[in-house]
Amino acid sequence: MTIIESEVKVNKPVSEVFAFLSNMNNHEKLMPDNIYNWVSTEDEVSFTIQNMAKLAIKISSRVENKELIAIPTEKAPFEIELKWTTEDNGDGTTTAKHILSADLNVMMKMLASGPLQKLVDHQTAQLQAILG
């Protein structure tokens, strides 16, 4: 299993950060420009990654103010799990971590790990930019 992660400190309370991440409609604001055909509800989203694949994911687990897990609802090119964890830093700020777990063969790992790392880094940077 390939684990790709990115962490950021957000100047908002954990409840606000978790509420934002808990609504899949908000995730479009975290995506890079190469994402299109975005369709979402609070719990599910589908989109196309330019020159790569179409993905449909849904929230499979929520642990209030701690963890959010999303998994594919349709067959994906490889097994994948998207997880966000939020941790109260005790000073009104939150540490948010985005963890992408993917079952990649050697060839896919060489091709996809760079773009996937860029994606999770972009999403955490956008979260910090939007929420402060």
Automatic annotation (TrEMBL):
<dbReference type="InterPro" id="IPR023393">
    <property type="entry name" value="START-like_dom_sf"/>
</dbReference>
<protein>
    <submittedName>
        <fullName>SRPBCC family protein</fullName>
    </submittedName>
</protein>
